[in-house]
């Protein structure tokens, strides 16, 4: 028997073992686990018991504004081990750093990049791939269906690569020719790779990655593909800085250049290349599929709500008579119905539809229960129709659109409307 045949046999056996383990674990959780008598999914539990429910012996899910502020903003608890599945290039970055204090150190290096006034400077870099997308969709002319998730992922990859590295990838253009850029595919594959990687031992992962299936190998290599791309951009940018060829007069500073000049406040040391590469990779992952998911849901809502589409189209036509000339961001931010539509879409369809786990220490001062401990049910009132998409929820009358939206999103002081949105999504990084 040849060595190749032996490797194939071992890989196939390992894969079968992993599949069998997953099936057995699923059967145990469904039929034999102590919580198997609770058939509802988490959303159903919220509907039945209220905004705070226990979903496992040591895990509580909440859909509650007060708890959100307490966990994420006041106490700032550390992340759970799940986030280690998001490690890039075998190195931590902000998203994969569990301790809050260490996370804050990482965050200082990139936070100025996402200030709205700074993002507004990158409008030309954002408009270019957007207009490329419009042209390609126009050329298709409705003759064939379009996979929106892939389309918007490539759009966001173009935007992120351009604003992060000052590099033109032309992912949208390649997508239009059915030749998706390997980087875009790798960014899409990485979350799946991370989940699979986190549930199997290292030895088993190393074995299954040898399975000679091209698409499977590509998924396994997604981390390496991204690391090689970012590494090349890092070394190129560092060479430009050291040689004095970098244009310091430009009003835009790509994210990568910020990281290359950043010093850790705790040590005063420059950010090492390994941290820069991992951080930049994390931003590509966090900003592409999340945005494509939300944008796809937005279009889905428009496809089934013609009245909303007509009203939105009317407002956009007035502010943007030429589809190939995108107005300044300040103009778009002043359009009431557009902003109502976006806010309502983000309220209903989270960009990251998953629990953002935090670990609560055994002794946590200030987290004493305020409800009857004999039940998981909460006493939080639910806003009527909170689970329904309604872009007209916001009024464009006297008090403005934002105030009306906030009435349906956060509690207000007036006793006549002490409600909170039911399906509040928590976005934290």
From TrEMBL:
Name of this chain's protein: Cytochrome P450
Location in or out of the cell: Membrane
Family recorded in the similarity comment: Belongs to the cytochrome P450 family.
Annotated region (Disordered), positions in chain: 360-382
Any GO molecular function: oxidoreductase activity, acting on paired donors, with incorporation or reduction of molecular oxygen
Pathway terms, separated by semicolons: Secondary metabolite biosynthesis; terpenoid biosynthesis
Primary residence: membrane
Membrane-crossing segments per the record: 6-24
Keyword Coiled coil found: no
Example of a GO cellular component annotation carried by this entry: membrane
UniProt organism field: Lentinula lateritia
Xref: SUPFAM superfamilies: Cytochrome P450
Cofactor(s) the protein needs: heme
Entries under PANTHER family matching the protein: CYTOCHROME P450, CYTOCHROME P450 12A4, MITOCHONDRIAL-RELATED
Keyword set includes Oxidoreductase: yes
Keywords, in A-Z order: Heme, Iron, Membrane, Metal-binding, Monooxygenase, Oxidoreductase, Transmembrane, Transmembrane helix
Gene3D superfamilies attached to this UniProt entry: Cytochrome P450
